[in-house]
């Protein structure tokens, strides 16, 4: 059995960590390499960087951040934001990332998922699913949550897996930044069909939310940002709570 | 000086970072000559079993590796570098492995999600130098679709469970190998690498 992973996510813009509420209103939260190191020392199972500037100049900053982090942090690093090509992914992987996350570019050109998987292996390819509730289902959004794609999020998740994704990062846009808990129904709808790991994202507020994501939503890993950045919860607290509830976590 | 065998399979940067952190010096060896100056050999690897072997044979590294291992040079295989030591793999049926250890690499068949990606527990089967300072039940980070399920029990240093039991580490005199990624396994992984560096 694998331990459930706790993944702090660092949304990076202009070399700083910022965290949005409902994909807007950014407030600075600290310096990325230092934060990553702190989370590593606290027991983070993985560190995620999301480049929310995702411009060409920003990319260089992120590559440098990844390079500096990888020299000091010895758990997997996942990096996403604006990756459109094998070349861009290679640059991040060579800098020390273990996986890259793609969303918009994969929606626009689904072959990208297969190209990345063939080049680097499926384990290096995470497909991000930004989903918003519409009626009885969920719609897939791209471009940092600004553009409706018309795709059914659950079907797109399945397709992404078939195309070669190694993991799915499932973000509820309705919950992101609200601290009202993860959308466990969305997680379960995708998770029950998936034969690759599902990472829950969007909505962490309290300890119970982490438990619900894995126990009710069936997620393999849980990603959160602001609850960690603003010191509301520590990774140790989350793990102690899950352990008490008999969820397997790495001490 | 550790020689990291570079046969073009994946990124050696993370391993280099971990060795830098431990203060160990290393060179990357892309041919037999590069290995001459190394007093320890590290065989990493991510990718396909058959193409890794083809590359090791083409570059002459296979023969050099065999000779150095026979001479008693401390050796550590990681992930695919662990699997390559065995006789063959279900991943590449037409390729024979290095055959330094008995047993075959097979696909995981019980777990629903393959590859295994994540932190799994090490059940230490005996006292080894490889795991000095590591507790039984410690977690290590794995990424693999294939695993060795059966080999001589006295080779095994640790087993883990992923739907079924598999060998997560072996130690046979100077030949050490781990299925997990010590360079990504936090303090536990760094301890394993330190044990090799200081061996």
Automatic annotation (TrEMBL), chain A:
<keyword id="KW-0028">Amino-acid biosynthesis</keyword>
<dbReference type="Pfam" id="PF00977">
    <property type="entry name" value="His_biosynth"/>
</dbReference>
<keyword id="KW-0963">Cytoplasm</keyword>
<dbReference type="GO" id="GO:0016829">
    <property type="term" value="F:lyase activity"/>
</dbReference>
<dbReference type="InterPro" id="IPR050064">
    <property type="entry name" value="IGPS_HisA/HisF"/>
</dbReference>
<protein>
    <recommendedName>
        <fullName>Imidazole glycerol phosphate synthase subunit HisF</fullName>
        <ecNumber>4.3.2.10</ecNumber>
    </recommendedName>
</protein>
<feature type="active site">
    <location>
        <position position="11"/>
    </location>
</feature>
<dbReference type="InterPro" id="IPR011060">
    <property type="entry name" value="RibuloseP-bd_barrel"/>
</dbReference>
<dbReference type="InterPro" id="IPR013785">
    <property type="entry name" value="Aldolase_TIM"/>
</dbReference>
<dbReference type="InterPro" id="IPR004651">
    <property type="entry name" value="HisF"/>
</dbReference>
<comment type="function">
    <text>IGPS catalyzes the conversion of PRFAR and glutamine to IGP, AICAR and glutamate. The HisF subunit catalyzes the cyclization activity that produces IGP and AICAR from PRFAR using the ammonia provided by the HisH subunit.</text>
</comment>
<comment type="subunit">
    <text>Heterodimer of HisH and HisF.</text>
</comment>
<dbReference type="GO" id="GO:0000105">
    <property type="term" value="P:L-histidine biosynthetic process"/>
</dbReference>
<comment type="similarity">
    <text>Belongs to the HisA/HisF family.</text>
</comment>
<feature type="active site">
    <location>
        <position position="130"/>
    </location>
</feature>
<dbReference type="GO" id="GO:0000107">
    <property type="term" value="F:imidazoleglycerol-phosphate synthase activity"/>
</dbReference>
<keyword id="KW-0368">Histidine biosynthesis</keyword>
<dbReference type="InterPro" id="IPR006062">
    <property type="entry name" value="His_biosynth"/>
</dbReference>
<dbReference type="GO" id="GO:0005737">
    <property type="term" value="C:cytoplasm"/>
</dbReference>
<comment type="pathway">
    <text>Amino-acid biosynthesis; L-histidine biosynthesis; L-histidine from 5-phospho-alpha-D-ribose 1-diphosphate: step 5/9.</text>
</comment>
<keyword id="KW-0456">Lyase</keyword>
UniProtKB/TrEMBL annotation, chain B:
<dbReference type="GO" id="GO:0016829">
    <property type="term" value="F:lyase activity"/>
</dbReference>
<dbReference type="InterPro" id="IPR017926">
    <property type="entry name" value="GATASE"/>
</dbReference>
<dbReference type="GO" id="GO:0005737">
    <property type="term" value="C:cytoplasm"/>
</dbReference>
<keyword id="KW-0368">Histidine biosynthesis</keyword>
<dbReference type="InterPro" id="IPR010139">
    <property type="entry name" value="Imidazole-glycPsynth_HisH"/>
</dbReference>
<keyword id="KW-0963">Cytoplasm</keyword>
<dbReference type="GO" id="GO:0000107">
    <property type="term" value="F:imidazoleglycerol-phosphate synthase activity"/>
</dbReference>
<feature type="active site" description="Nucleophile">
    <location>
        <position position="79"/>
    </location>
</feature>
<keyword id="KW-0315">Glutamine amidotransferase</keyword>
<keyword id="KW-0028">Amino-acid biosynthesis</keyword>
<protein>
    <recommendedName>
        <fullName>Imidazole glycerol phosphate synthase subunit HisH</fullName>
        <ecNumber>4.3.2.10</ecNumber>
        <ecNumber>3.5.1.2</ecNumber>
    </recommendedName>
</protein>
<dbReference type="InterPro" id="IPR029062">
    <property type="entry name" value="Class_I_gatase-like"/>
</dbReference>
<dbReference type="Pfam" id="PF00117">
    <property type="entry name" value="GATase"/>
</dbReference>
<comment type="subunit">
    <text>Heterodimer of HisH and HisF.</text>
</comment>
<feature type="active site">
    <location>
        <position position="181"/>
    </location>
</feature>
<feature type="domain" description="Glutamine amidotransferase">
    <location>
        <begin position="39"/>
        <end position="197"/>
    </location>
</feature>
<comment type="function">
    <text>IGPS catalyzes the conversion of PRFAR and glutamine to IGP, AICAR and glutamate. The HisH subunit catalyzes the hydrolysis of glutamine to glutamate and ammonia as part of the synthesis of IGP and AICAR. The resulting ammonia molecule is channeled to the active site of HisF.</text>
</comment>
<dbReference type="GO" id="GO:0000105">
    <property type="term" value="P:L-histidine biosynthetic process"/>
</dbReference>
<keyword id="KW-0456">Lyase</keyword>
<keyword id="KW-0378">Hydrolase</keyword>
<comment type="pathway">
    <text>Amino-acid biosynthesis; L-histidine biosynthesis; L-histidine from 5-phospho-alpha-D-ribose 1-diphosphate: step 5/9.</text>
</comment>
<feature type="active site">
    <location>
        <position position="183"/>
    </location>
</feature>
